[in-house]
Amino acid sequence: MENSLPLSDGISSSNIPKLEINCSPQLASWLQTQGISLAFTTYQSNRLFFIGCNQQGRIAAHERLFDKPMGMYAVNNSIYVSTRYQIWRFENSLATEEKHQQTVDAKRLVARDRLYIPRTAYTTGDLNVHDVVLDDAENIVFVNTDFSCLATISNDYSFIPLWQPSFISKLAAEDRCHLNGLALRDGKPRYVTACSTTDTAAGWRNHKVGGGVVIDVQSNDIIATGLSMPHSPRWYQGKLWVLNAGTGDFGYLDGSQFVSIAFCPGFVRGLAFWQNFAIVGLSKLRSPTFSGLLLEQRLTNVG
């Protein structure tokens, strides 16, 4: 049986209905044992969620509204979040062992060990920013999906282009290959995922099945092909991990071959690691954007 928990300490607006989060009964004990919390975005409902475990050993959830939140990156006391028009930087304002106490429901006192305050918002305009990272020089690097490039922030313009795939002939707001994922290696942008190698406006939409690639940013080489809408590359424990979203597979690259580790029953985007655990984001298939994917049939088969 699942636990159903009202979000009583989320958004204060009386016009926004309270949400309920359903979770597996083992989640609270796992979070407590590992000593971690989870943060993730869902752009269809415009929300940033924090999920943790309270002092009573129960799931504690917190939400905030943003306009189309997508990419997230956490490092030290900072969290970066890409939204429709901006990239936000949040900083934890609490010292070690310090607690933030807040009264909720006019009666309960809740103590939290993190308090993230918005410190900076970089205005980029609508670039359809996906993954965002902070490199070893503390530069913000993000996937500018609309312009098919990696970019950084600018004091004068919407962005500064840093790199583009060799098959992209022009930087234009046309989402030519649906460049989406970015992995750091040794603190530097190293691997990206794209849904195709097309060089025409929205050309990737005709190559959702088998057209996906992984590219080495350093060498400009395409190091894996034949993927289906790959997302969220991550370098971890000496391997390059990838979500093959169009098939629902989580796995890694062995040379140029994708090796599936597990089938995930949903459209997979968003990947993080904690020790020997992989944390994967799943969502329902949206039609007709994702029609024709192998994932559709696999989900039908598993009911």
Overview of the molecule:
- The chain has 303 residues and is mainly β.
- The protein has two domains: 92 residues, no CATH class; 180 residues, no CATH class.
- It contains two helices and 25 strands.
- The N terminus is likely disordered.
What is the tally of helical segments?
2
* Percent of residues in helices: under 10%
Main sheet properties: 4 strands, antiparallel
The total beta strand count reads 25
Low-pLDDT stretches are 1-12
β-sheet strand percentage = over 45%
Q: How does the helix and strand content classify structurally?
A: mainly beta
Instruction: Compute the separation of the termini in Å.
Output: 19 Å
Number of domains: 2
Whole-number radius of gyration?
20 Å
Spatial shape = globular
* Topology pattern, helix = H, strand = E: EEHEEEEEEEEEEEEEEEEEEEEEEEH
Oligomer: single chain
Please tell me the overall pLDDT.
Answer: 90
- How are the strands of the largest sheet arranged? 6-7-8-11
